[in-house]
User: Fold these one by one.
Assistant:
Number 1:
Amino acid sequence: MADVTLRQIRKDYGGVQIIHGLDLHIKSGEFVVFVGPSGCGKSTLLRMVAGLETISAGDMHIGEIRVNELAPRDRDIAMVFQDYALYPHKTVRDNMGFGLRLRKFSSAEIESRVNNAAETLQISHLLDRFPKALSGGQRQRVAMGRAIVRQPKVFLFDEPLSNLDALLRNQVRAEIKKLHRRVRETVIYVTHDQVEAMTLADRIVVLQAGRIVQVGTPDEIYGRPQHRFVAGFTGSPPMNFLPARLAQDGDAMTLHIANAKPLLLPSSLAQRWRSHAGREVEFGIRPENLSLSQQHGEWPTIEAEVELVELLGAENLLTLKLGAHELKARLAPQVRPSIGARLAIALDPAHFHLFDLQTGNVIQP
Ligand SMILES: Nc1ncnc2c1ncn2[C@@H]1O[C@H](COP(=O)(O)OP(=O)(O)O)[C@@H](O)[C@H]1O
Ligand SMILES: [Mg+2]
């Protein structure tokens, strides 16, 4: 177990800067997920921790040791890749033990570590098989076993579930989480999938174009996004965004969303945003914070037209039209309005988000 510290870490490829001076401290035993769209630099960053990419500038520490110039094998890390990279001509047992054999561990120690890891991963019955006789999920478990037997200070995962089908992905995801509960090792896990990030992470690092946009617990990232990009990247469907304007009306404050009737803001919000009266903003609200107005008489309401109703079993997803704009609402499964109906939609003021139109930064009270 070790902490990992990045100080002003940069990566240039042939004069083009890909990672722009990142600072991050990962605590010992913490499960940290790097999440962001394809191409934002997640793998590059992970490979720099692993020693598979050179570091163009900055300092990388694993524990007390500055590792910038250390070879991967000397960093005491183990990495699990998306494509498993198993040796086809070795059994599961030999695949798992191979790294230890190279490091001259005794046969008894290798056998004990492999057996323990196999038990943890529930693949003991597969130890004498070859990779071609395994399913995708089983191969992924062998790849994890190979990392576990090394007992590294830090585990690195690069999109390890991407090649699995949806059901298996959920299963293995839950297993990775349980495994971490048990071993409490430092994990850095890379994914483009926000659900994986939300479910696995102690802390999430949201990356965009080689920069950190926000670091926080899953609750913080979801409930208090500091940037429009974070708000729009999390949740399915993600947060709704609408153009809006804050206005002062005597002592009260109103919010003019698109072309809807102005909403009277509750006094707590009016106080928070008073200094921004007159400002054009981007209004954000998550689909689960919309409701039918009858149920929440005290919430501000807007009128919108039902464009689409999707029955998802446990809930219904409504697409609503507000002038030229679209809003998604997650409602109870018994709510089945007809297409074209005009509904009064209540908006939960406890979950209003306002973002700066130019920078995308959240508008603080
Ligand atoms: N070997 C390389 N040479 C030049 N550019 C690269 C190389 N590897 C990655 N890049 C670029 O760096 C950026 C980040 O890539 P990557 O770390 O793979 O992103 P992610 O894993 O988030 O999808 C991309 O724009 C990619 O094109
Ligand atoms: Mg990648």
Number 2:
Amino acid sequence: MNDAGDGAGAGVRGLRALQAFVFDMDGVMYRGNVAVPGAAAFIAALREAGVPFVFLTNNSTTPPDKVAERMNGMGIPCRAEEVLTSAEVTATTLAGEMPGARVLLVGEEGIRQALAAAGFRFTEDHRQADVVVVGMDRQLTYARLQEAGLAIRRGAPFIATNTDRTLPTPLGLVPGAGSLVAALQAATDREPRVFGKPSPGIYLYALPRLGVPADVTAAVGDRPETDILGGQRAGMRTIGVLTGVGTPESFAAMPPPPDWVFRDLGELNQAYFG
Ligand SMILES: [Mg+2]
């Protein structure tokens, strides 16, 4: 264990005082379509011990049941209700603020289902739109982008599920939701309200489900600038793992660094339960 944090609660004792976990998925639980070594065992151990956890993803395209299916397919036991997506946080939060509003959506099945379930209606006409919601959309057309831009210019709130600029694929990095959001920023000179990581919104939304305070909850992730920063902003403890994007150097360079850095979930499992 590399104990990167300098807070009084870091170290093994602080680690064992943790009462809940919020996990990033890609680069933490799995890479590509393969589970990270130790991931399934740690999840099983947390279940056995009754320690609450949630899987948290900026991906707004895939509904929670499909995310769970994919995890189970890789051998990591996962239930749909343990998956929290930026789509659900966006839809539920907006439903409390503007119930029944007409949404002009740039997005895929996940966010569409979440908005529909929260009581929103949809429109493709900027003149009818009460709000513009933008997520990753692999079928986006110029016509849709145009209507979204016009609606924002007319004053409709500009909402982004997340602002990940790129997505890793076998071909390389391709444009992500953040690139679509950036197109609308350029077209409107407006800034979006963002729900996904590193906004603390998605972390704070998870807390009531976990049932414990932020300061005994750990956000576990591979990306310093989203997973760790978002957890810190929400007042959580943070754990970096080295199975994805982040390196020991990139975690150490953060102001402040995560409280702990582990090679993988197997090493975290040993330190937490060992
Ligand atoms: Mg990740």
